[in-house]
Amino acid sequence: MEMRAVNSMSYEQFVDVFGNVIEKCPLIAAAVWTDHPFSNLSALEKSIGDFIDSLPRSGKEGILRCHPDLAGRDLLRGTLSPESQGEQNRAGLTSLTPGQRSQLSELNVSYKSRFNFPFVICVRMNDRETIIQQLSSRIRNIPEQELHISIQEVKKICHLRLLDISSQVAQATKL
Questions:
Q1: Residue 67 designated active-site
Q2: Average pLDDT, the chain
């Protein structure tokens, strides 16, 4: 990524470009903008990760609550963010069998009831069978462990979204 282009972005441009690297949390992009200039993409990613790590438990849970249920209502209504839509599509969550959809829906409800936030996994690093297996397994975790795992998954999603943006910016600067 051409970091000069990133570092020259206004606050508004930066938030517009990076506002959804953490699902529906543009305030995180707004907060880390103050850390610029960034020496490279890793420095930007570290700034985001450090910001998340500095949050109290309620803030971390808030980040998780911004994520949609996998193959849930937002997918069916077509109201997912473009990033989530593409990620869930690539993982095969848009083409579940009725049995898989029912199983995932029941697991989502149980998980949310137990942890008070939706199940978060980096779907781009998993397929639908693994996602269902992980949801079935992680629902047995203790809350503190599950919060930690979920935040690590958010960071994986962020990493991949930053790489996507980096590729888009690189292509745009070549034009």
A1: yes
A2: 95
